[in-house]
Amino acid sequence: MLKIQYQDKSFELPLSKANLLGSFSLDEDWQQMDYKHGDSALNLCMLLSYRVPTSYLTNNDFIWVDAVDQEETALINLELEINHTDFDLDNKKTRVLGEILLFPSLTDLQNQQANQSILQDSTLWFPAYANPTQLNKINFGKIIGNQIEVTCSGDCVDINGKMSFTFTEQVDFVISSEIEGYPENFQDFTIQDRFAEIKNCFATIYNIDKYTFEERVKNELTKNVCVDFKLKDSNS
Q1: Are residues 9 and 60 in contact, defined by beta-carbon separation less than 8 angstroms?
Q2: What is the rounded CA–CA span in Å between residue 106 and residue 139?
Q3: Which of 177, 173, 197 is nearest to 187 (CA)?
Q4: Torsions phi, psi for 94 (to 5 deg)
Q5: Cβ(78)–Cβ(50) under 8 Å?
Q6: Model pTM above 0.85
Q7: pLDDT digit string (tens) for 181-204?
Q8: Closest Cα to residue 125, out of 67, 66, 79, 169?
Q9: Which residues contact 28 (CB under 8 A, 6 or more apart)?
Q10: What does each C-alpha distance from 188 to 27, 44, 191, 192, 223 come to in angstroms?
Q11: Alpha helices, DSSP H, located in the chain
Q12: pLDDT tens profile 69-82
């Protein structure tokens, strides 16, 4: 549920869909790199879509609609980028900004709280607002099955006035790795070779036996491929 406080009005929007995505692109020289110790990091992004009740659309008080679904239900789509790392120019390494690991698993995220550095570097935009939100909370909570609870809150101010929001959702966590374009070292690789290369790299970071995976071809011409990984069981 997304709760919005705008001026003297309150709105509650039911969730349509949401997921937490961890992603990284495979470097062509990944075998000479140490991903787990600063040569790369998992990008964390939460994608959410909320349904807007028809009663909210009868006047001009509700200003955040940015899409409609196939049933012509009004929606708000949000993208929360959780920037938990930065790059240390002196050491030429990626470093964490808080307690979240460079490549966290689902269980690594449980009960983690974003510190002020992560909150300041993370971004979330609301439709109709020219400025990003000022985030004051991103908390990971309990795991139920293969889903994790995420709570986020913050404020946004521009010429439309001040808006405050909060949501708590239980979401899937999918880790996605991709080979893009025409990297030189992969030039002669078939699509199946590229899938194998992604899985080999993933196995150096995570225990691949604990994950299911789905292979996807995003562009046959450029052999742009992706593999999505999902933990089989959070208790395993």
Answers
A1: no
A2: 13
A3: 197
A4: -80, 135
A5: yes
A6: yes
A7: 666 778 888 999 999 999 999 999
A8: 79
A9: 183, 184, 185, 186
A10: 15, 31, 10, 11, 10
A11: 106-109, 116-121, 191-205
A12: 777 789 999 999 99
